[in-house]
Automatic annotation (TrEMBL):
Sorted UniProt keywords: Aminopeptidase, Hydrolase, Manganese, Protease
Family according to the record: Belongs to the peptidase M17 family.
Keyword Nuclease assigned: no
Top-rank lineage group of the source organism: Bacteria
The protein, known as: Leucyl aminopeptidase
Gene3D superfamilies registered for this protein in UniProt: Leucine Aminopeptidase, subunit E, domain 1 (3.40.220.10), Zn peptidases (3.40.630.10)
Gene Ontology biological process terms in this record: proteolysis
Gene Ontology annotations for the cellular component aspect, listed alphabetically: cytoplasm
Entry's Gene Ontology molecular function annotations: manganese ion binding; metalloaminopeptidase activity
SUPFAM superfamilies attached to this UniProt entry: Macro domain-like (SSF52949), Zn-dependent exopeptidases (SSF53187)
Domain Cytosol aminopeptidase: 311-318
Any one Pfam family match given in the protein's UniProt record, by short name: Peptidase_M17_N_1
Length: 462
């Protein structure tokens, strides 16, 4: 995995002047030749760059940040405006200059590091050219920890299923645990079939070496009783209700929930905040074979609740249900699930704004405020009680895929909530885990969603 890096503090660097747009045009730094900048067409609009000449070439640069605003006020398309500079400035070390008091340096530095991510496992990638000297006053280790968590999530999602099956996801979890002093238990085989029958049913048809498993990480020490559960479907064919080929093209990302909880765990551990944390990842491949689970099957979950399978492509909630029931048996104060769960969530809110569900008002408010303040957008949706009847079929306790096409994200969340009895607050994130087209700081491909919202909310809710 590529590690995020700042330029050394003592590196020979050039200034990058942040220029604010005032009511009457750009507010020019005193030491900058504004005549040259004006002649170059520089107006200070967000993302605009003007290279400043010097005796030996480029002496520095101007970068427009528009009207200063907090991340909460910044439009989503400019979520990481400074990342544009990281992507376009000439090679070398750069230091920020002329920073207005209202500018969020931590947010800017994080966006710069996000822009330097490269996925080069299969193809040589051009390394980042422009490097940032960590701005004075920024918590360097905290920013690096957040970037490292994002990098890990992206790496895991971007890796194709040929190299990211259930065993590979286990290896990634073991590596994370070894680096940070956590213990790992992995449940497979007969123990999985007996104790976690829905995880086993979904994953049993996978090929040799790709058997289903439940990965259980525990961090020592005192800390809030928090359990993170991430959906780890390493590839999703849809099972016997097979997907059309076009819908399978990015199904390597169906373990995006697992990638996000592992990325968040990496950040928490690097910050020394993982004491007492537990992480559960049900890891499977939803494949097609002679022993695939079938539409119409009735499965008995770990909790004893029976589930009628009306669509084998709604497998994520089945594996999460067993993992959530297991997590709830220890009564954590906060239980969080993250999953690339429903197309309905994307229809409702698009790929960039994942919904989350939470009944605890204090927890929901803390999550939303953290998402707003740290430019990690999420949007609250309801556990709508009147829809409970939609997930109750005729011959079993629950239906994994109610018909009708209505409220798919809500009914999936209601299904999962049935398995969290015994836990304190429960929050479920229905993420996409994929950036469909490149944006500043967010290259096309795997992406973290909701991780920093949870990170910054945790001190107040657990």
């Amino acid at each position: 995995m590529t590690e995020p890096e700042f330029a050394p503090a003592d590196a020979e660097s050039r200034p990058l002047w942040l220029v604010v747009q005032g009511d009457d045009g750009p507010i020019w730094p005193e030491s900058v030749d504004s005549a040259f900048a004006k002649a170059s067409g520089f107006t200070g609009k967000p993302g605009q760059i003007c290279l400043l000449p010097g005796e030996d070439g480029v002496a520095g640069a101007l970068f427009g940040i528009g009207k200063p605003a907090s991340p909460a006020d910044r439009p989503a398309r400019e979520r990481f405006t400074l990342a544009r500079a990281a992507e376009t400035l000439p090679e070398g070390a750069w230091r920020l200059a002329g920073v207005p008091d209202s500018y969020d340096l931590t947010h800017g530095a994080l966006g710069w590091l996000f822009a330097q991510y490269r996925f080069d496992r299969y193809k040589k990638a051009e390394p980042p050219k422009a490097r940032l000297v960590c701005p004075e006053g920024v918590d360097r280790e905290a920013v690096l920890a957040m970037a490292a968590g994002e990098y890990l999530a992206r790496d895991l999602i971007n890796t194709p299923a040929s190299d990211m099956g259930p065993g590979d996801l286990e290896a990634a979890a073991r590596d994370l645990a070894a680096r940070h002093g956590a213990s790992v238990e992995v449940i497979t085989g007969e123990a999985l079939a007996e104790g976690f029958p829905m995880i086993h049913a979904v994953g049993r048809a996978a090929g040799q070496g790709r058997a289903p498993r439940l990965i259980d990480l525990r961090f020592p020490g005192e800390g809030p009783a928090v359990t993170l559960v991430g959906k780890g479907v390493c590839f999703d064919t849809g099972g016997l209700d097979i997907k059309p080929s076009a819908s399978m093209l990015i199904m390597k990302k169906d373990m995006g929930g697992a990638a996000n909880v592992l990325g968040l765990t990496n950040t928490l551990a690097r910050l020394g905040r993982a004491g007492g944390l537990r992480v559960l990842v049900p890891a499977v491949e939803n494949a097609v074979a002679g022993d695939s689970f079938r539409p119409g099957d009735v499965l008995t979950s770990r909790k004893g609740v029976t589930v009628e399978v009306n669509n084998t492509d709604a497998e994520g909630r089945l594996i999460l249900a067993d993992a959530l029931a297991y997590a709830a048996e220890e009564s954590p104060r906060l239980l969080v699930s993250m999953a690339t769960l429903t197309g309905a969530a994307r229809v409702a809110l698009g790929p960039d704004l994942p919904p989350f569900f939470c009944d605890d008002e204090a927890v929901a408010d803390a999550l939303f405020r953290a998402s707003r303040d740290h430019a990690d957008p999420i949007w609250r949706m309801p556990f709508w009680e009147p829809y409970e009847a939609m997930i109750e079929p005729a011959i079993a306790d629950l239906d994994n895929a109610p018909g009708g096409g209505f409220a798919g994200a809500i009914t999936a969340a209601l299904f999962l909530r049935r398995f969290t009895e015994g836990a304190g607050a429960y929050a479920h994130f229905d993420i996409y885990g994929w950036q469909p087209s490149a944006a500043p700081g967010r290259p096309k491909g795997g992406v973290g969603q909701g991780m920093r919202a949870i990170l910054h909310a945790l001190p107040t809710i657990a």
